[in-house]
Amino acid sequence: MTTTRDTTDSATSSPEPSAGQLVRERQSRRRQLRARIAVHGILVGYTLVALAPIAMIVMNSLKERAAIFDSPFAPPTPETFSGDGYESVFNRADFVTYFANSITVTVASVVLTVLFAAMAAFALTEYRVKIAPFLLAYLALGIMVPIRLGTVSILQLMNQLGLVNTRTALVLVYVAMGLPLAVVLLTQFFRQAPTELREAARVDGASEYRVFAILLPIVRPGLAAVAVASMLPIWNDLWFPLILAPSDATSTVTLAVQQFIGQFSADWNAVLATLTLGALPLILLYLVFARQFVRGLTAGVGK
């Protein structure tokens, strides 16, 4: 019995790794560690490069004008601290109106872009029509052609419609600008939604609007990614507010910065304070929806 038990134990137990295998495993772990350190070092370096301009804007917005040029890379000290820039922003300009215009235009444009793009992507993936590939190719072409090439035609159209110096003109242009990329992205998310779920809903008698509503929570990461990707160029855009809505009643935050830049001099404290206040909503929004945004960008990467 003892001989049989010893034979069984020796057969079931794993053999001891040889010295060569241990050396190779140790070298493999070291290579993986070096690669991981290199990747994290590159990411940390890129993060510092990306955040450095924002940190400089915030720091210099809280300093005196002379300190901005004498030591632009130094944080504010009790001797150089100054809130004159923020005081100028709220006293010399109607910043609340500009801020409200930016929020109104951005929110309306993003909501309409996400809604129309989701409906178009749902239709392109659900209904097998022959022109669907051509429509997707047409939308992909719209991503590659900058909408600013049609500025003159857009201005003529808005002038004929009587929409110049209105926020509606900006919303219409931004929705048209964001739809091609949004539809192409959301089409991939709708294709990954479970087919059994939509078929079960239709068997239970659900309408197409109900099926669309059922699939929306599943493609929520895609909706968040499209919302963030559409929001950034709209909030930061200077071109179309300058062309279509330059009046004081319809100016956005980016256009309001121009008020503090003259032909021969500029109020850099006010400019930096306006840029800091204008960046706050985007930073807060990204912090709130960071998880959804990352999930939307990385969805399908490992498949």
Automatic annotation (TrEMBL):
Q: Which family does it belong to?
A: Belongs to the binding-protein-dependent transport system permease family.
Q: What is this protein called?
A: Carbohydrate ABC transporter permease
- PANTHER family according to UniProt: ABC TRANSPORTER PERMEASE PROTEIN MG189-RELATED (PTHR43744:SF12), ABC TRANSPORTER PERMEASE PROTEIN MG189-RELATED-RELATED (PTHR43744)
**UniProt-annotated stretches for the region Disordered:** 1-26
Q: Which BP terms from GO are recorded?
A: transmembrane transport
Q: Where in the cell is it found?
A: Cell membrane
Q: Where is the signal peptide?
A: none
Topology class, membrane: Multi-pass membrane protein
Annotated membrane-spanning segments are: 37-59, 98-124, 131-149, 169-190, 211-235, 270-289
Transport recorded as keyword: yes
Q: Name one Pfam family in it.
A: BPD_transp_1
Q: Name one GO cellular component term.
A: plasma membrane
The UniProt entry, under CDD domains, shows: TM_PBP2
> Would the keyword Glycoprotein be found if you checked this record's keyword annotation?
no
Q: Which UniProt keywords apply?
A: Cell membrane, Membrane, Transmembrane, Transmembrane helix, Transport
The residue ranges flagged as biased composition, category Low complexity, are 1-14
Q: Which residues form the ABC transmembrane type-1 domain?
A: 99-289
